[in-house]
Sequence to fold (254 residues):
Amino acid sequence: MAIARYTAVAYNNNPSTISCARLRGRNVRDAAVTLRHGGVKGTERPFPFRSRPLKPYRRSHHPHCQFIELPTKATMSSSLTLFVLALVLGYSSASSPCPEGWRYSPFTSKCYKLFSDKTSWTTAEYKCAFQGAHHISVHDATDNQFVAELARQANIVWLGAVQYGTDREYTWADHTPFGSFENWENGRRPTYHKGKKCSKFDGITGKWIQSCCKVPAAFICSKPAAVLPDAIIEDDTGINEDFRRTRLAFRRRV
Fold:
């Protein structure tokens, strides 16, 4: 059986336009994922990654990618992670520290993007994770004001402060230390409520609000600027350590 190897190529930072490029060599370890920024020739950026050797594939015709490969059950994990890799790495240009559509903050050296579609806290964090990001965390008054300007358009957005499981202490979704700055409504941290373990951010007042995790709201994702995330293809699960920790955290009852 013939073996053909392909890698994902996204155009205009749009994961839905993933195409295919032929890879040469015996192992994906010797190849690279190329992301084209805006489809402009000459702006390709190689991204090396590690993986196990590819298994033989069954051939199937696809109108947008001739002989796109349909993986067997044994290779489904590797194929899935190629898609996730292309989805996460969306950078606009070498001149910008943030991907297209994201806003840079010089105060935190992070990139931020408002998503107006309303969803639960957990679903929003999943969506941020697939952008290589997390819910917003706020660590000082300047940071709080910057987030308020972003959130004003949606009025209310999710905040990254959450109480996992039976833990009564708040934790930031991005794992940064909590407690250096707080701006709760009424001027104090709310008392523990087992039905309200998440928090929201008021874009008008800049105040933090205790909330049920399932009441839908818009959200803002944030991630470090101009830093490529680690390769996702690391182990048998096809998900690197950071994604694994995030997934396990969501399995706990929020």
The chain has four helices and 15 strands.
